[in-house]
Amino acid sequence: MSIYFVTHIRHSVTVFSGPAKRRFFSWLSNVFSRHSYSIVKLHNVSPVLPVLDRISKPQYVIDGIVPPKLPWFDIKNEEEITGMKDACRLARKILNVAANEIKVGMTTDELDRIVHQACMDNNAYPSPLLYRGFPKSICTSVNNVACHGIPDSRELESGDIINVDVTVYYNGFHGDVNETYPVGPVDKAGLQLIDAAKASCDAGIAACGPGEKFSSIGKAIEQKASSLGFSVIPNICGHGIGRYFHGADILHYDNTEDRMMQEGMTFTIEPVISEGSTEVCVMNDNWTAGSSDNSRSAAFEHTLLITSQGVDVLTRK
Fold first, then answer.
1. 175 and 316 in contact (C-beta within 8 Å)?
2. What phi and psi, each to the nearest 5 degrees, are found at residue 179?
3. Model confidence over 277-292: pLDDT tens digits?
4. Is residue 40 scored above 50 in pLDDT?
5. Within the chain, where are the H helices?
6. What crossing angle do the helices spanning 78-101 and 108-121 adopt, rounded to 10°?
7. Phi first, then psi: what are they for 296, rounded to 5°?
8. How many CA atoms lie within 13 A of 170 on its CB side?
9. C-alpha angle 216/217/218, rounded to 5°?
């Protein structure tokens, strides 16, 4: 779950040629089509679901105080790495449960209830719940919603694309993963967007390893997205993770970050890839970030561990 918007947003210029030109006109066609995809607006949000007393809770739930994020990436010891692996394995398991339930006609609130119950059944706390007041156990971002969508009473429609973001707090550690899924038959442009988001995330992962600069992640992601005719939304970032939910930022675009990855570091990569504008506007619920032009976006996320040999994708299927 990407919480923090980075504050240093750069200006960008899009040159419409090759695949970018084709994607642009495909997106433009969708904008003016009455039958491409529905523009998502805010719907009714149900009350916060209860958490069993036996479930261990993060400190920010107990005292309501979110600590400042770490400005660095800490090095995990063997015990902490084991804890991270267990949490990430469970996060992946629960995301798979959610993915198998996605269907036309169900509400995102129903999907949230399924994930919430899966967390209870596995003695885990759903990390987003009550984090800075967030009222649900997952984020569900549909069509023109880039991130942080709050599950609500809106029913999923055929042709939607939905990103489901699951984070669990398990035995003292957070594991974070998300994927974007088609709902029923989806137009070709939507499927290409999903594929580009996955390819961009994979490119960022491939850039990771001990001694590599963190800036190589953003460079690889932006190059891949651009080569496929899409753009990275720059003010949504990945983050360090561990006993804490959100640590230092991971930028998903070409940047000059000179810090180096080291064995034992854990962090997320979660680029949000757009078919249109890279600008987002936060809606009236103070969470849901929608595209400024109602274009769609897609994202994939993994929690990673830097090892002596390279990178271990802790949330891989």
1. no
2. -145, 160
3. 999 999 999 999 999 9
4. yes
5. 18-32, 59-63, 78-101, 108-121, 188-206, 215-227
6. 140
7. -85, 160
8. 26
9. 95
